[in-house]
Amino acid sequence: MADARFDLNFDGTVAPGADPATVRRQLKSAFKLDEEGLARLFSGKPVFVKRNVDTSVATQFERIFSRAGAILRVVPIQESGATAPAPGSDGDGPTPTAPPGLGLAPLDSFIETPPEVKIVEPDTSHLSLVPGPDWSLEDCEPAADASEMPDTSHLTLAERDTRPDSKESGD
Asked: What are phi and psi of 110, to 5 degrees?
């Protein structure tokens, strides 16, 4: 049981015969708490002081609380519902747990039934294919615009001067 792990809970319970004011003062001093932290510790609700600790740390904290006159609850992790492995699991990874009254959806299934999608069939009665080898993909190309060619009759070509000192040579 050397590798046993524990959660440490405190709900503000004071040992019989202990003075609550003294217990509060000693725990405040031992853990260097401010007033807000002390109020949270003595709220009456269970508070996790430490989680997942080994036996030596659990014994040390239990001793501190006992000397102060408070009752610390040391819970083995196997008893704690939040950290115990679920039946049938190997305990290697975290096991999801559901709140009471709720369940988890099976793996690889829908949470709710998907809605039925109605696909409307388009009307293709007006379409036809050219039978046989009487057509090619060129028939699918859109027709070229019937725009007029510009009049270039007034343009001429001139000889280009290629001498190195010429300004037209591009240098």
From this structure: -85, 145
Q: Is residue 61 predicted with pLDDT exceeding 60? A: yes
pLDDT, one tens digit per residue, over 133-169 is 777 777 777 777 777 888 999 988 888 877 777 665 4
Question: In this predicted structure, what is the pLDDT of residue 107?
Answer: 66
Neighbour count for residue 141 (Cβ, 10 Å): 8
DSSP 59-127: HHHHHHHHHHTB--EEEETTT-TTTSPPTTS-SSS----PPTT--PPPTTS-SSPPPPPPPPPP--TT-
Delimit the domains of the chain by residue range.
6-76
pTM, entire model? 0.44
CATH annotation of 6-76: 3.30.1390.10
Neighbouring CB atoms inside 10 A of 55's CB total: 14
Angle at 124 between CA 122 and CA 128, to 5 degrees: 160
- Burial group, residue 110, by CB count within 10 angstroms (0-12, 13-18, 19+): exposed
Give the span between the Cα atoms of 160 and 108, in whole angstroms: 77
Give the whole-angstrom CA distance, residue 5 versus residue 48. Answer: 14
